[in-house]
Amino acid sequence: MHSDLRVTCGVEPEGVARSTPDALAQLISTLCAPFGFFTPTPGVIDGLNLSRGVFSLLSDRQQVDFASVNQLAQAVSDLESIHLVLSQIDSEEFAIWCGLGKNEGRVHLLDLMGIIDRALIRVTRAQLQLNFTQYRPSPKALFRSLTQLALVGVSCDALQLQRAWPTSARKPLSTKWKSQYESVKVFKDTGTLVETEPSIFSFQLKWKGVGSTDLAVGLLRNRLILALGGVRHFVELPAACSRMEPGVVQMFKNKMTIDFTVDESEWPRS
Amino acid sequence: MSEPGKENASVNDLGSWLISVGAPESISDLIPSEMARLDIGPLLALFNGIGLNGSGLMGSELGGVSVKSGLLAGAGGNVSADEIRWLPIIRS
User: Fold this and answer.
1) Residue A121, Cβ neighbours under 10 Å: how many?
2) What is the pLDDT of residues B3-34, one digit of tens each?
3) Of B35, B62, B80, the CB nearest to A34
4) Which residues of B touch A107 (CB under 8 A)?
5) What is the distance between the alpha carbons of residues A178 and A218, in angstroms, rounded to a whole number?
6) CA distance A208 to chain B (A)
7) Phi and psi at residue A259, in whole multiples of 5°?
């Protein structure tokens, strides 16, 4: 089901807000730290740039333009990161402090998180159009951008993409690339934790074709970070994982697994 | 302190804005000067219209908590920020 949002990639966006590129991470950190409840996780907010399409996604505009598929993927990823930062602010201490009548901040914080939630849902259901009139990436670069887009939950209709590819291009899309584009699937899995042997659990995530990507995988508090060329997606881990030691990530063609080992010193046998 | 009626005149830089929402003036000594001069217009624009400016989260009383070099000095001593832990990958 589509939302009322139409997104075009390949068109230079109009009226971009002023930019505070490298400083934004430090800025959020400085704004949040004095409250005493929140220490931002280094790396989560590095490189965020509100003006890079994030404002557009938060607006209620029905038509939003991005210069490229990669920029759209990056903006959605930034929006997810900002949401994560806000959820880190919403600590138990902060909630109690607000609940004691010190501050109305939590109400507004939850409002903002709700706005971002809705924006993320809206963009994942948007009607996506590609336009190669101004700029035509190489088929390989486009494949990588489409994979990044799929990682953050946005799909692209491969047929629409083929129609948009300029017929005047010196090199028409080969059958190989058409089939590659059709193979890109949106990342949807929330993962499963299974016990493989005593004291060892395996967290499994399925994503078609993940084995052929150069995905980086990290842990942040109770979330798994999947990163592909600067575009990140966060997967919430089962609570049990936070009390276990992570091992190596095994990447297969269509799934990845991460072993977690129970630290027996924390759970002594009786 | 800001003069009455002038609170919004120069809040686009971080240092002035923090003071305008109630931070002690000594907060300027705790953050590097280049950060104090940061233009936070785009961020304020994000918060505008959803109540995070003014009396909301960003208008909190900031006294009682000190900040030093990324460490939080509060109850329980200094707490360092946690970090992303990247995991080794084996590709089959």
Assistant:
1) 12
2) 333 344 446 676 777 676 556 666 566 565 65
3) B62
4) 51, 56
5) 32
6) 14
7) -85, 140
How many residues comprise chain A?
A: 270
Give me the residue label for tokens 């980086």: A216
The burial of A25, by beta-carbon neighbours within 10 Å (0-12 exposed, 13-18 middle, 19 or more buried), is given as buried
pTM summary value: 0.73
- Range from A17-26, A173-182, B27-36 that averages highest in pLDDT: A173-182
pLDDT of residue A171: 73
| Distance between CA atoms of residues B68 and B46, nearest Å | 27
* Complex-level ipTM: 0.83
Structure tokens given for A211: 């084995």
Nearest by CB to A251, which of B31, B45, B90? B90
Nearest CA among A207, A3, A234 for reference residue A121: A3
pLDDT at A124 over 80: yes
Q: Count contacts between A and B (CB, < 8 Å).
A: 149
Interface test mutation site (partner B, options A30, A90, A102, A214, max chain B beta carbons within 10 A): A30
* pLDDT higher than 80, residue A67: yes
**Mean of per-residue pLDDT scores for chain A:** 82
